[in-house]
C-alpha cells in the first residue's frame, strides 16, 4: 500500500523504514528535510516531500496519512490542515501519544467531512524497527480493515510467544500478532494510556527493589547486616525462570551490565502525560489506582534529588524509548 508518514522522529522514522521493508510505498515528510533524507536512505520505495500539501497530492485515493508528531498543538494543526485537504473516504491516522478525548473530538470533526480518523496507541519504542510495534487502535471498521496490511506489517507477528493456555476461539487472532482494534475512535489511545500507567507501576516496583538491595550494602546498616550485592548478576538471574521477567527487567539487566552504579544517569525522571491521564480517568470512574498514582508522584519527587532507584527508572526509559534526561 502507499501512505504518507508525517513525523520521522524516534518512532515515526523507524516505522517508515519497517513499512518500506515490507513492500509498502511511503511518502516521507518531516519538519527538517535532513531527517527525511536519512530515513529515505534506509527505506526502499520511499519518496520525500517538503510540505503537507505535496504529501497529500502524492497519494492515491483513498489517501492514507499517518501522523507521528508530539501531542498538542502541532498535531492539532496538522489534523485541521488535513481536514481541509482530504476528501470523503480518506484516512487520517494519529499514532502519537494523544489524549483519547482529543481523538473523539477530532474524529467527529473529520467525520462531518466524510474523512476517517484512526487513533493508534503504539508501543515498541526504539526497538520497534526490528521487534515490531504493539498497537491498540480505534476507528470505524471500514477504515481499520482498509489499513490492516499496514498494521500487520508493523506488528511483531506471532514470534516465539506461545498461545495463552485455555484460549477460546472467540479471541481476536490479531491480538496474537500484536495489534488489536479496540473500538471506536479514542479507544486505541485510551487502552495505550492505561498500558503506560501500568508501565509506570511496573517500572517503579523494579526501581524500588533494586534500590533496597543496593542500600543493603550501605553504612546506614550495622556492618554485620550488610550485603555487597551484585545488581547486574541479580537482574540476570531474575530473567531466567523467576516469576517477574519482562522486557523492562531485560532493560534493567542491560543497563546494570554496562555500569552497575548507573553513573551515567542523574535519575530526574520525566513523564510524558499518559500516567497523568490514566489517573484522571481513574478519578472520573472512581476506580482506585494507588500504585500508578504513587509511581507518578515519585517521578515528580525525583526532580528534586535522586536515589539509585530513580537512576534505574531513567535507565529503563532510555532503554525502551531513547528518552534522554533533561540537562
UniProtKB/TrEMBL annotation:
Its UniProt pathway annotation is:
Carbohydrate degradation; pentose phosphate pathway
Tell me if tRNA-binding is a UniProt keyword of this record. no
- InterPro entries documented for this protein: 3-OH-isobutyrate_DH-rel_CS (IPR002204), 6-PGluconate_DH-like_C_sf (IPR008927), 6DGDH_YqeC (IPR004849), 6PGD_dom2 (IPR013328), 6PGDH_C (IPR006114), 6PGDH_NADP-bd (IPR006115), NAD(P)-bd_dom_sf (IPR036291), Pgluconate_DH (IPR006183)
Annotated ranges, domain 6-phosphogluconate dehydrogenase C-terminal: 188-327
Query: Which GO biological process categories is it annotated with?
Result: D-gluconate metabolic process; organic acid catabolic process; pentose-phosphate shunt
Which controlled-vocabulary keywords does the entry list?
Gluconate utilization, Oxidoreductase
One GO molecular function term of this record is: NADP binding
What's the family?
Answer: Belongs to the 6-phosphogluconate dehydrogenase family.
Please identify the protein, giving its name as recorded.
Decarboxylating 6-phosphogluconate dehydrogenase
Q: Name the lineage.
A: Bacteria, Pseudomonadati, Pseudomonadota, Alphaproteobacteria, Acetobacterales
